[in-house]
Fold each of these.
Amino acid sequence: MKFLFVKKRIGGDIWANSRLKAVSNMLSLKGKKVLDLGCGEGTYLGDYFNALGNNILYGDLDLELMEKMKAENKIVLDATNLPFADNAFDLIICADVLEHIKDDRTALLEIYRCVKPKGYALLMLPAHSFLYSKNQIKLGHWRRYDKNNKLLLFFKNTGFKIKKVRYSVWILFPLLYLIQKIGDETCLYGKRGKIYKNNRIEILLSPLLNFLCWLDSIIKMPFGLSLIYLLEKPNCYFRKNEKNA
């Protein structure tokens, strides 16, 4: 898998490629129905599964972001109230979405409802609550997640069982931690983070960057910027639609 220029900045592309390589080691589907939930303007995960021969639907709440996408099969939707029938998808990708939703449990219940029995939800969550700062509120984050019994119970109570789990992007973890201590980490994201007007530097460094991302994907460390969960819906489907259950 070649190094992809996704975010147009070195840190962002290391982040994207490390996670993509980790996902490619965790799951491979062909000929399935997939929803990329919260795709924004970046479709590298959906595009990966599309290239494998799956039927991809891209969805997000932000129409303006989706209008920047080249893909035609896209829909505006709310993650807490998905407009699909039960058991509609073989896989729902939910990358960097739940932390933006105050009621993340309702969103996960909707994902569970729309996944077929023996189907999967691929979640990517910002890791380590101690990295949550007031500056991340500017990014619309309600929380970061810890790999602990509380999160395990969260998944269990919605009906999912954990198939695979791992940290990702550990290679950038020291950088974010350091920037948090000396400044405002929101400079790494959004428009303020797009400091490279061309990717000439990345093109020159791409063999090294690709190696670092590969290293990040094959070596499992007990820390990282992202938590990746592959959740499976049991074959014996049961409803958990009660919000306060």
Amino acid sequence: MNELRLAAVAVVLGLAACTDAGGSPSQTPAAKQGGVTPAELAARSAPKTGDTAPYYTELPLNEFMPHVMQYAGDGVWKRQGYVIDEKGEHSLFPKNDQEWEDAESASLALAEMTNVLLIPGRRVPEPDWDKAVLEVRKVALQAAQAAEKKDPDAFFEAGGALDEACDVCHERYDPTFKKK
């Protein structure tokens, strides 16, 4: 019970810090992101009956996918393949230990992002959804292993499998998707 009181006091103090001298919520960009005040965000993020954690799932899936999943996937794909320009062919593959570490981190970040697609309020309650998400996770982990081993061929192969896994999901769940 004391923990609950302490949490309530912390919320009240936190909200008080977000008000101006007149007592109204501050409208600074940090305090009001995307048209949502900190108090509104806290209320939305509060655990619902039966939940074990305050998941934030307000970002619509059509925003989550390009801003989070695609961003994470690009962290893998931008480190693969070749570019040909007027000066010749240039490898995009990591060239040193730090770049391979970055490639592994990008792959692991993507694998972890798949968890977000399976949390209550975000998950599409269909077996095909789970299967598609788990396939993305599997190939992201394969990319991480290849990066850890500094194996450009396996890393490139995992990138192709990742592209295919993403396309399968998009074909099923994104009505605007057009395969290249």
Amino acid sequence: MRQVAILFARADSVYKTMPGCDTWDIERDARLWPGGAPVVAHPPCRAWGQLRHMANPIPGERHLATWSVRQVRAWGGVLEHPAQSRLWPRAGLPAPGCFDKHGGWTLGIHQNWFGHRAAKATLLYIVGCEPRDIPTMPFILGEAEATCGTSGRRKSLKRKTSRPEISKAEREHTPHQLAEWLVDLARRCHVQGAAQ
């Protein structure tokens, strides 16, 4: 089984329970990862997301996303960020369905396809695996049972038809099915010149 490096995982990440995953959380400090394997990168997104104007990132946190892009390009794998992430224009990442000069491409998904309670629109930047070679992807039509919310503002609408909001922790967790899919995808990624 080909080992995959998981960069910027939560301390309680599902990846820590999965075989063949070298998981780097805040304790291990992913910036110390020596390379040598395809990656699944989950860099902090609060400084890049739709609500970045309300975020309070720690010094240097914003740089972790661009560092992660370089690791994915060097070793192959996938970077995951919210669909509204400003990382895409800042790092010159391609629009969904397009390729960049590094052979990387972007795929848009909804995490409820993989078991998340909210739709959670997400972009994946993939290097080293052609679109035809990705693992089989689930696809679900219709609304998700919950929303990602915006710090309780939906609750103030007091509409009986609104769906419940998920918690901050639930927004940050990667569903097990998605984690398995991302690891499978990373194992299929091969970059010329990278260690195999």
Amino acid sequence: MKLVILERSALVAPRPTADSRPAPVADVPVPALEAVARLTHGGYHVALASHQANVARGLLEMTTVNANHRRMARQVEEAGGRIDAVAVCPHAPDAGCRCRMPQPGMLLDLIERFDTTAAATRMVAVSDAAVAAGLAAGCITWRLCADGNDSDAPVPTVSDLHEVATRLLTASAPADPPATAG
């Protein structure tokens, strides 16, 4: 089973408002839609891992979170791709739950759900917490960094989801990005 877990911010960045309440989910950018479609057609399952601490803070309802994820999934489907699962941690950062990254619980649950192994799973992380969770789960973890180079990252970097799809789907390209200097 081929599984790619995307930290939600790798697909679409949140748009905070002036009072730190989350704004409605932005549209998924076209390049990300195309990358997920390529992964889907290449036989990969794509899952999202999403922190939603504003649920615990009372600033956001789970129904809104779920509606936002359904909207994102529809956009991906309209572009020919598929989001096969969304895992959500609705807890506050200090709750001590097993699902809040950097804990690996959310990722391990997705790996089990798809009956695969961590070693066969790619985690595409934006935040330090997601990088740590991917490593703790045993996933092959990549850091998404706009310029493709984060010399402080403890894992290889990729510039965007297009690069992820290309590396995974092109036989001549290495499946894993080269380690960064640092």
